[in-house]
Every structure is written in C-alpha cells, then in structure tokens.
Amino acid sequence: MNSTVHHAAAGDLWVFGYGSLIWRPGFAFRDRVPARLTGLHRSLCVYSFVHRGTPERPGLVLGLDHGGACHGIAYRVAPNARAATIAYLREREQATSVYREATRRIMLLDGSRLCVEALAYVVDRRHPQYAGRLTLAEQLRLVCQGVGQSGRNPDYVIETVAALEFLGIRDARLHALAGRLQANAPGTGKVPG
Length: 193
Prior knowledge:
Elements: E1 5-6, E2 13-17, H1 20-23, E3 31-48, E4 59-77, H2 82-93, E5 99-108, E6 115-123, H3 136-145, E7 147-148, E8 151-152, H4 153-166, H5 172-183
Parallel strand pairs: 1-6
Antiparallel strand pairs: 2-4, 3-4, 3-5, 5-6, 7-8
Helix pairs in contact: 3-5, 4-5
C-alpha cells in the first residue's frame, strides 16, 4: 500500500462520492476513479427534509458515518472549476447542515493506489436529522413515504444500488432495502412492511 499522500496538483480538487454523487455528480470533472475511504462507512442514516422528503414526511438518505470503510468514486476537478464546484456541493449537501464538510484521505483504486486528500460530506451525529442505525422495516417505511425536491425516495435508493452494482460494490443493507422496494413497487399489489 502506498502511504504517501498525493496532494492535488496546481489546485485540483478531489471530491469523494458515496451515494447520489456516484450517479448524479452535477459538476464538471477531469477524472472519475474508484476509491476507498477508511474510517467512515456508507449508511442510510439521515432523515431527508428537503431532497427526498419533508419535515412532515421525512425520507431517508445516505451519510458517511463513523467506523468501517466505504468504496465510492473520487472525482478530480480542475483548478478553474474548484470554487464553482465547492459552491454547488455546499448548496446541494448542506441545505439543512446535517453534513459537515471535511477533507479526508482516500485511496484511489485505479491501479496507482495513490492516497489523496478529498472533499467529503460527513453526517453530524448531533444534528436532529441524524437517524442512526434503523431496522430494515423502519428504513422501508421512511423511504416509501419520502418525496422531496429531488424526487421520490425509492428512486434514490434504487438508483444508488444500481450505480454501486455497476462499480462491483455490494452494500448488503442497502441491497436488501432496494430488493424490498422493488418487490413492493406500484402495480405489484404488495404492501410495504
């Protein structure tokens, strides 16, 4: 393992995506590379009041939570797009301040095994929207009811799982939820629960 941290050349910005940023980054980038972040894991642990739910009917979205490791995507952004990318990400990820903007060391899984410093959005466990670890039944109920500015919550989970599968990443809890959502899709006659 290469333990040397490679700092972004000439102002390049690295961004770590672990959820919807994998399949809908929304910003221009130079490179898109599989990556691993150690010390945090992908978790469906955030009540969504804006993008996939409302305060009255919250949905559930992913956060980077303490412990473990997370496979995702590292985006390298050109220096001239740095400020605009950070501004976009702050508007998207910090609508309710449930995520803390942080720089974390990630390993690029492109064969180089370089370690770089990347911008990441980590869940704030003290925030009222932090849901913690919920049962599959609780997740299913919240996701089924969630609709927000960015669309239906079930679509978010299913799109994320499809993107993870495309990358060869398996997240057992998220895959189990997506399976239940697909089995309970409209027109199947099945009731979530």
